[in-house]
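Re: beginner question about structure tokens

> Can someone show what the tokenized structure looks like for a real chain? I only ever see the sequence side.

Sure, here's an example I had lying around. Input first:
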Amino acid sequence: MSNLSPGSTPMAANPLTRAVLEIDEYASGLGWDQPARLFALVDTGRLRSEEPGLATQLGLDDGAETSSLTPVEQDELPAGSPLDEFLATIAWPDAVVGCAMTVERLMLPPSAESSVPEGLDEAQLAEWVAGHPERQEVRMTVAVLRDGARETALRLREKDSPTEVLTGSDLVPGLAEALKATFAE
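And the corresponding structure tokens:
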């Protein structure tokens, strides 16, 4: 497990937005062409009071905001396993108040969607998109809380700058729903 160090992450209005931007900044520092990464989100104040040794190991001093969320990176995802199948195997302990994931994908602008050939299977479609001249590489960081709150940060490879990160709660609804399902009781 590793903690993401607070650094140049912009301040945001709520703890979930701050956490998703912190994870995006961390992923950005690792560069592109990275595997998907999964994070547990834990309440920083609770972590400090219940697990002081771990909080110290993660660099959470007493000055850290008590209403904040601490992202804790989980073990590497199994290679070759479809994301939806992997997420269906996750069960979080009660101390985890949310989770987040970063994934990179190729996307086409809406103007190119009308030119997609019909009848392609998933692999053929992925190959077609990868060869399209208007494709864009995007890193998506999606976070959800047990209560259903969600937040996303999107970063285009061609505009790889902290000032060009788009945030919103409904930008990647499919992944948000899959992450939320990891908390199903």
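Each token stands for a local structural state, so reading them left to right follows the chain. The first strand starts at residue 2 and ends at 3.
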